[in-house]
Every structure is written in structure tokens, then in C-alpha cells.
Amino acid sequence: MISKRPLIALIWTMLIVCSACENDEFPKKYVFHSYKAGNLKAYTKTGEITDEAVMLSFVERSFPVFREVESDPLSYFWPSGYESANWSFEIEIISAIKARIHYSNTSHDYDLIRKNGIVYFQSTTTAMSPGSLVNERLKYSPLIIDSGPWYLGQQQSVYRPCFYIDEKNVELHIPAVTYVECAYVSTGEFLSSQGIENHNNIFDTGYLKKIKNNLNRVDTIVYQNNTVIFRARN
């Protein structure tokens, strides 16, 4: 029978060596590279909408959901080949557990946590916000959320703000989701609406099952998962 001790010792040695190799790679610095627009997706209780004219008409009718600062509601969704101003900050991964974002005249440090297939840049300080921070339409939420005090009849949430980032070899992909959703009662009358624009997150397609299984409402939702790409600086 072969002893397991030499094998265990070898594994630990490899882990220590690999850890040292990883540490030699730090710090890693990334700067803005490009934008990548996702496909516009639309769903109702009966399934996916593929007619672009119908999809865009819904967006136009739902425009009051968004902040009224643009004359064209479709400007909230990125067209193919979308371009905008470059992001003027630098992302630095300091170590396996620490990161930093550099702005023009300042910088902020974050705890770096790899979980759920992505990298969380978690703030080192807490923040407070009214109501719940969990949106079932979005894939990610802060890792640390606690119930805070009541204020003006509403309980606050105490949490550590996060950036959600996907590592892709020499690139960091920052997701940015926009969606608009309107709910109608089964007879067609408008019930409620909500939306979000260029938010650092990904739309959770699991939410679409709730639209299909709702017998008392007819919901319509249009969303787009976009990406801002940062690339390692030479």
C-alpha cells in the first residue's frame, strides 16, 4: 500500500509554490478599452418577443419609468457599436484579496472577493439605504447586508457596497444592465412599472419564470446586458 503522506506533502508544496507565483504577478493594472452592447431582449407572459418594432414601441411607451433627461427613450439602450466617453479611472488588483480604483485625484481601496463566478470589489466601509437591496431581477447583490434602524416608517439596510466584475484573461468585464418592466392586470389596465439604467449588474433570466407563472398579471419586460471592458496595461 502506498503511503499518502508524500502525496499530501507534494500537494502542499505545489500550493505554496503556486501561491508565490501568483503573488509575483501583482499588482495588475487595467485601463478602459471598449464597450460591448448586448442584444435587446423582451418577454411577456406568453414568451419572448422577437419583433423589434413591437419591442421598441413598448420601450417608448414606458419611458416615464426612466429619468426624463433624454428626448429619445431608446438612448438608454446601447445600439450595436455603441461608443461613449472613455472611463478615466484605473483599476488595480493589489493582491489576491485587495484592489484599488484610482480616480483623477484620489483612490479607494476594496476587499477583493472571488465568489459566484465573479470578482466582488467590496467597500471597506458600510453604507445605509432604505428598504431591501435585493432585486430579484438582478443576478448579484452585496455579500454583506444587515437590518438597520427604522427611519420615517421604513427599515434601513446596512451593507457593504460592491462592484461586480468578471475576469477574462487580461481583461476585466464590468457588466451594465438596463431594463424596463411594466405590469398590467389581466383585463389590460396598467398596474405598475419600474426600470434601471446602466446599473453594474446582470439581468437574472430566472426571473422570467415568475412572469410566465403569474395568473393575475400580464408583465412585459425589456432588458439589455452590456459590458464595459478594461484591459491590462502594458
Structure notes:
The chain starts with a helix and ends with a strand. 15% of the residues lie in helices and 45% in strands. By secondary structure, the protein is α+β, with helices and mostly antiparallel strands. It contains three helices and 14 strands. It has one domain (27-126, 136-142, 163-232). The model is unreliable at 1-7 and 9-23 (pLDDT under 50).
Strand runs, count: 14
Strand order of the largest sheet: 1-4-5-6-7-11-12-14
Structure classification:
alpha+beta
Work out the strand percent: 35-45%
Q: Indicate the mean pLDDT.
A: 84
Shape: globular
> Major sheet, described briefly?
8 strands, antiparallel, barrel
Uncertain segments: 1-7, 9-23
Order of helices and strands: HEEEHEEEEEEEEEEHE
Oligomer: single chain
Total helices: the number is: 3
Query: What is the percent of helical residues?
Result: 10-25%
Radius of gyration: 22 Å
The N- and C-terminal alpha carbons lie at a distance of 51 Å
Work out the count of structural domains. Answer: 1
Layout of secondary structure:
Elements: H1 5-24, E1 28-36, E2 41-44, E3 47-49, H2 52-61, E4 90-93, E5 98-102, E6 107-115, E7 118-123, E8 127-130, E9 145-151, E10 154-159, E11 162-168, E12 171-185, E13 190-199, H3 208-213, E14 217-232
Antiparallel strand pairs: 1-4, 1-14, 2-3, 2-14, 4-5, 5-6, 6-7, 7-11, 8-10, 9-10, 11-12, 12-13, 12-14
